[in-house]
Amino acid sequence: MKDATPITEQESLEIIHSMIQKAKTSYHDRGISSLLWGTVVTIASLISFLQIQFQFNLPVDIWFLVMFAIIPQIIISRNEDKTIKVKKYEDEAIDTIWMVYGISIFCLIFYLNVVPAVTDKLLVNEGIELLERNKEALGATKPFHYFIPSGFSLFLILYTLPTLVTGVVKKYKPMIVGAIICYVMFFVSCFTETKYDMLCGAIAAISCWLIPGIILQRKYLKSKVSNV
């Protein structure tokens, strides 16, 4: 201990600067999560719109692409935990929010794919059969009201959660603006048919994640070059 050489003020500043730089390398600052979700949701939304518009079907539901995006999300998170030596508490909280978001997307897609078929089966077991009403043939005497829930509107609400939290915590305006646009798309989707809901979803994904993710990735790469 007697032979230890005290560090200079300049060396202290360099150590502090190095720690700050390490703390800034979360995958939220790099835009990896934004690019991941922005890409898969935009692709799934646009393909769904095209399927409805041009009346064709794929062998599998394209939304499974979004559902399984949680797998690379987990891999990215674990890899970042190994490489980042100093991780801020706020980053750990945001990581958790994105993870919960991914699980919630998985559950919502599973629900929308499973529940309708299960409901039909339960109705058949109860001896209940739903028939389409022909007003001209039956001469209906009063309006027949029915409600078809828009599952995609629920997705738009869910999209805003990790986006707005990340934007506010990180003080990142592109994500805050993207979340606001996503809320606007939610309200629009309440008054449009399903195929246009898909376009609303694509706009929301591009605004919430794709554009902010591209900006973050460019900033990260630029800062990485300048620090070499």
Question: How are the elements arranged and paired?
Answer:
Blueprint: H1 9-23, H2 27-30, H3 32-54, H4 64-67, H5 70-83, H6 89-125, H7 135-138, H8 151-169, H9 173-189, H10 194-227
Helix pairs in contact: 3-10, 5-6, 6-8, 8-9, 8-10, 9-10
Pick out its properties.
single chain; 228 residues; mainly alpha; 75% helix
Overview of the molecule:
- This protein has helices at 9-23, 27-30, 32-54, 64-67, 70-83, 89-125, 135-138, 151-169, 173-189, 194-227.
- The protein has a domain at 31-83 and 90-114 and 150-227.
- The model has no long low-confidence stretch (mean pLDDT 78).
- The chain is elongated and about 85 Å long.
- It is mostly helical.
Q: How many DSSP helices?
A: 10
Overall geometric form: elongated
Number of strands: 0
Q: Whole-number average pLDDT?
A: 78
Helix content: over 70%
Largest sheet: none
Could you spell the SSE succession in H and E letters?
A: HHHHHHHHHH
Please state the structural category: mainly alpha
Task: Catalogue the unreliable spans.
Answer: none
Q: What is this structure, in a nutshell?
A:
The chain has 228 residues and is an all-alpha fold. It has a domain at 31-83 and 90-114 and 150-227.
